[in-house]
Each structure stands twice: as structure tokens, then as C-alpha cells.
Amino acid sequence: MLTVAIIIGIIGIGALGIAGRRRQTELSGWTVGKRDLPRWTTWFLQAGESLTTFSFLGLAGIAFGGGVAALFAVAYLTITCILQYFVVPRQRELGAHRGYLTMADFFGDRFKSKSLGKTVALVGAVFLIPYLQLQITGLGLIVQLATGSESARGYSMAVASVLVVVFVIWAGIRGLAKVAIFKDFAMLAALVIVLAGVVAGIGGIPDIFAKVIDTAPDYLTVTRPGFDATFWVTSVIVTSIGAGLNTFPHLWPPVLAAKSGAVLRDNVKWLAIYQFLLLIPITAGIAATLILDPKTKGNQVLLSIAQHTLPEPLIAVIAIGGAAAAMVPAGAIAMGISSLVSNNLLTVKNPKLRFRLNHVVVAVAVGLALVFGLAKSDIGALLLLTYGGLTQLAPAVAIAIGRKVRVGAVPVNLGIITGTLTVALITFGNIPTGGVDSGLIALAPNLLVLVIGEFIRRRRNPLEVHDTADEDPLSGRRAVGAPV
Amino acid sequence: MSTVLASPKRLSIAAVPIIGMIATPFLPFVSTPTLWLGLPAAIVWMGLMIIATVAALQIIERSYLREGGAELDRLELELSEQRRAALDANGPEAH
């Protein structure tokens, strides 16, 4: 019965994305609409990254193992809002003026280099596949934990994947926005239910923490093994840099589609409030240390505690909220991958053919992620590269949002490649870093190669100044550059 | 007076909650197990930092709008309307 209710919920989420929307017929409308998305639509799209399967499965698990160190996610998401306040209006401004559809368009145009655009598109598309698999696998895990059925896991993953493909292809960014609105309310309901379950099943919040301080006081400090101050500082800094400078390709369409920079500023100046919701899974994770077996796997903590404390119908609500938390990011990631491939990697002149190919890429990307997920393939190591690797684009973003771009594409490209290879070397070579985030370490050689490369470029071509000031009358005045 | 959004003054205001959050593990009430109002001090501190972030961004926004940003916003909206009108007349954006 629970499985049926959850599958019906998942189908409802997919139907919501299609209902009342005309089928999109060309790539720019599908990706960024008419660049006129109003405040609230943009709000829910921008909020997408705050509430994902990580909020459901990951955060409670980290709190279960690391106590209040799990607050590092609240810290980096809040800092991201601050950085994005300054950065994304400029990215949107350039996008509207120069007609960008993807992050790779931005790189290719600002550095006047198609090869840099293609590198960014390739790196972005490859690194997003594991992130897509994470969402689909997370959805399956939520359903499996809620129902206790292995087959329900597979069915739910397949149904949700098909629905994501259908509503993303059909309605593009506007369909995604509609589902994102439902997702945020469903997540809010699910998290409040979890909190109510914790209070009803274990005790009042002050009682819970009073017991924790008596039994395991280190859960209330940032000192647990693997979750110390070094972990906190480096993880917060590197993730804030990556997310704050908007280096994730799937987060670009909401920015490019916004009606104005003012809309984006208005949103991010309030979006930090969302992070209060993340305090619920963190509290639940710490409370779980009082009743769950210490050997419980991290990503099973939230639903295990819900099963200990809540009746079946409420478990279904939580599972549907979790499914929505997976389907919206999955849709955004599929859009991100397909637009990078069809718009930047493939050279197709015919717009209709390009749009059809784009649909094929959506289906292939989601299909691949589903197959990896069903086969339980371990591409998790690649996911470690996703965060650290994409953060290597941050120096280039910082250079490119300036009023004038004075750095060459080749040094930037070499810096990105060096940084990404460094992250890969540390990750796959199991090189000990003393708790310092590999993405942060890799930024050092990235910047070093960039600086040396640019020095050599200027020495070899002293007369060739790479200067790509854009012609927009408002260019850069609101973000960076010279005052009016 | 500056219409540059990321002016040194505005960046300084924005830096306050950022430093507060990064420094969290080193704060005395976080490095020793402490409860405030029945909650871990780290959770209360992070809640305060969220509020500080919203407050800082409101102050920055007001300063920006007051010092010429409102006019730039109006011009940007006008420009966007013109682009949309051209888009409606000429069909989808070419790439």
C-alpha cells in the first residue's frame, strides 16, 4: 500500500511538470524561456540546490557521525547566497546581452575561445552524470527505506526517471519551475513531520540535547573524527567559492532566464532563510544517536528515525517529499547536460535538428544515470571530482565577470585542466591531505599555472592585449568595474 | 557614493557574516559543549549568522539602490523589454 501511494505521488510530480504547459519547440525557449521569469518562479528554481536528496539523506547522516559539524552545509549555502548576490546579476546581464544559453557560452564568449567553451562543456557534462545518478539513486533509497522493498526501489527509480525525461523535454525550464514549487512545499511538510516525529518519539528538543551533552558531548563541538576544524574551514571555503561563483552548469538556466538582475538580487538576499530548514535533519541526526544502532549507515538515519517514530501514512508523505527533492535537481541536471552537449559540443547548424538531439541527450543522460543506479555501479569517486573539479572553474569565472577580460583563454584553460587533474590525482591516488579539501588544494596549482601561462603569453605577444569589453551600455557598472 | 555593486564598503559589510561562519569551530562556545536555551550553541550561532546574512544583504541593497542602483535597474529593465520585443518580432535567439 505504501509503495503504491509513493509511486502515485511520483507520477503526480511528473504530471505537474507537464500540466498546462505547451510543448517547447526551440532550444532557447526551452532553456531560458524569454528571459522574463518573474521573481517567485526564479525563487523556487534558485532554491533548488538548497533542498536536495543531500538534505534528506546526507545531512542527517553527517550529523549522526559528526554532530554539529553538519552545520558546515548551512554555512556554505548561506555564504553562497552572499557571493551570488554580487555575481549572478552580472552573469545574467552578460547572458541577456550576448544571448548565452549555457555556462560554456559564457566562457567561450568572454575569453573569445570556442575551444575553452568546449572544454568547459565537456568537463561540465561528464562531471554532472554522477551527480544525476546520485539524485536517482537517492530517490530509490528513500523509497526502499520507506517501504522496506528492494523491488520498489527499482520501480520508483525507473518511473521517476521516465517522468523526469518527459516533463523536462516537454516543458523545459517552465515545467521544472512548476515542479520546484511543489518540491519546496513537500520538503517543508516532510521536514516538519520528521521534527514532530523526533519530538513525539524521543522527547522535547531541550531534553534531547541535555541527554546528548551527558552521553556524548563531542557531538556538540566540531571535533568528531573526520569532522574537525580543518574539515569545516576548508570545506566551507571551497564549496562557497564553487557555488558562490556559480560553477555548476545546471544552475545557469535559472540565472539566465530571470527577468532582471534586480529579481536575482531580491531573491538571494532572502534565500539564506531556507537554511533554517536544514537545522531539522541536523537535529534529527544528532537525536538519532540516542536511539539508533551506531552502525546505522549515514544515509539511512533520517528515514530510520522516521520509521521509529511515525505512522505509515506520514512515512509516505516524507518519501514523496524526498522523491520531489530528487526529481527537481535531476531535471535541472539533465537540462544542464543536454544544453551543454547540443549547444556547445555538437556542431549542428539546423535549429530543429539541434533541438531534437538535445531531447535525445536528455534521455541518454537520465538513462545512463538510471542504469548506473540500478546496477549499483560505484561511480561515487567521480562524484568527488564533481565538486572539486567544477570549483576549478572559479578563477576563470572571477576573471570573466569583470568589465574587461585581460587574461588569455589558453592560460585559463591550462589552469582548469591542471586543477582538475590535481583533484583527480588526490582522489584516485588516495593521497592524504590532513582533512584539507582536495578542491581547495587544487586551486593552488590551478592559479599558479594560470599566472605563469599569462605571464608567458604577455611576454611573447606584448602588443596583443586580450581585451573583450562588451558593448552593453550598462556593462559591468552594477557588478564590478569602474564607477559611473 | 558608488553604483558599483561590489564596492569596498559593501563587500566589508558582506564579509562580517562570512567571517562569523568560517570561524565557527574556533569560537569558545563551540569548541566546548555548550547549550543555549536548550539548543547547542553552534546551532543558535548559525541561526544568528543566517539572520545576520539577511540583514547585511538588506543594508547593501538599500545602499546600492540609494546611490544610483535604482536608476540602473530601471535602465536594465527597459533594455530587457526592448530585447524581448525584438525577440517576439524576429523569432527565437540565433546561436
How would you describe what is shown here?
The complex is a heterodimer of chains A (484) and B (95). Chain A is built from 20 helices and no strands. Chain A is mainly α and 484 residues long. Chain A has one domain: Sodium/glucose cotransporter (Up-down Bundle). The longest helix of chain A has 52 residues, at 150-201. By secondary structure, chain B is mostly helical. Chain B has one domain (8-90). Chain B has 3 helices and 2 strands; from the N terminus they run ααββα. Chain B has a two-stranded antiparallel ribbon. The longest helix of chain B has 50 residues, at 41-90. Chain B is elongated, with a radius of gyration of 21 Å. Chain B starts with 7 loop residues before the first helix and ends in a 5-residue tail after the last helix. The model of chain B has no long low-confidence stretch (mean pLDDT 91). The chains are: A mainly alpha (484), B mainly alpha (95). Chains A and B meet through α2, α5, α9, α10 and α12 of A and α1, β2 and α3 of B.
Number of helices of chain B: 3
Radius of gyration of chain A: 22 Å
Shape of chain A: globular
Q: Provide the number of structural domains of chain A.
A: 1
> What is the second-level CATH architecture of chain A?
Up-down Bundle
Top-tier CATH class of chain A: Mainly Alpha
CATH topology category name of chain A: Sodium/glucose cotransporter
Distance between the termini of chain A: 64 Å
Number of helices of chain A: 20
Kindly state the percentage of residues in helix of chain A: over 70%
Q: How many domain modules of chain B? A: 1
Biggest interface between chains:
A-B, 73 and 55 residues
